[in-house]
Each structure stands twice: as C-alpha cells, then as structure tokens.
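May I ask for a sample protein chain and its fold as tokens?
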Amino acid sequence: MVLVRWAERRGEPDLSRFPRRTTSRANRLAVLDSVRAQDNLCVSSKVADLGRSRKEAELTMQGSKQILAVHIRWMIRRDMPEVLGIEDQSFEFPWCEEDFIRCLRQRNCIGMVAEHDERVVGFMIYELHKSRLHVLNFAVHPDFCKRGVGVQMIDKLIGKLSRQRRTRILLEVRETNLEAQLFFREAGFRAISVLRDFYDDTTEDAYLMQYVCRETEVFAPVNRITRMAG
C-alpha cells in the first residue's frame, strides 16, 4: 500500500485504476461532472446487500437464523481466496484478484473483513477522503445473509465518522437492486442522485446514496492505533 497515485492531491479521483468492466471511462467522467457538487465524487463501486437492517439487527432471532457475532478487522493477503469466493457468489460481474490488489495498493483504500470462527463471512472495500468515506465493494457470504453481518460492517464504518473530519459515507447501488436500497435506507442512507448509464455491463442507472453523521451522534474517544487496526 505504498503506491503514490492518490489523485485527490490534484483535486479529482483517479478514475483509471478501477476495474474497466464496471464503468467505462466516458461514463465515469460524465458521472464526475454530474456530481461535482457532491465534493467532486466519482469512483466506480458496487455494493451487494447481503446483511440486514439496523432495526432487524436489534432482534436476537429472525426466523430460524440467529444473529452472528463477527470480528471486523483489516483484510490481509491470506484472506483473498475467501474474499474472492464471496465476490464470485455475490456479483454477476465479479472483481478478479488483480482488481482487488490494484485497488488496495492505493494508499487511501482500505479493505476489511468480517470474521466468524476463523472464517471470512463478509468484506468491504472503501476509500478514505478528506471529508467522507466511499464504499467501493461490500458483500456477505450467501450462507450468512440476514444474520446481522452487514449491519455490523456498516456500524463499523459509521463509527469512523466524526463531525470534525469525515462526516458522511457514500456508495452506489444499482437501480434494480431493491434489497440493497432497502438495506442501506434502514441503516440511515438516503439516495441523493441518479447516475445515468453508470455501468458498462448493462444500461442500468445507479443511485448515489449517502449517510450523514447526525448531530445527535456522539462518538467516544478512541485510541488511534486501536481504530487503525480495525
């Protein structure tokens, strides 16, 4: 993670480093123009909703499935086979290993996994920007859906916000992915823009969704080293 190609130094995200099949460069540039008012945001991402709503997570049982307590930590190289397995089962056009590596080599890109009984059951990739977090990839293993894994990962992200620095989380969701839209809405996200013809593989639009740190949220002081470790 030492490759210095952080395009935010120039005031724009580096659009060339993301998987080409997800969004064409022409579309990415068009999106950049359309949402420049949203802090010059435009990076390719995809999100799979494979968790549950915050309200559902407060329950101790949903049907026959109990909530699964997970440990969320930094992603390491040996996690890649399990991450790729989840990716392949979650997306019609999955990232390959090189896509993950190329993304994670960026110094402002973070990978985290949700682990249960020494097994990776979910993961997320996100970017750190001056005033926001941007989720690029988010998925939970199909065998562990609707057991609170997704909610715990979202809570981890929300815990990284502060009113003094990073105040919001952004992500894109396909217009046909109703489950993801409902999941993130329950978690406090709201659609703020429609990104036309966002994807290469279909003519689908995407919804740009945002979570904003609320004034009533008070985050207790956290040891910086502990937070960096996940």
The longest strand covers residues 119-128. The radius of gyration is 17 Å. Residues 43-170+222-228 form a domain with the Aminopeptidase fold (CATH 3.40.630.30). The CA atoms of residues 51 and 150 lie 4 Å apart.
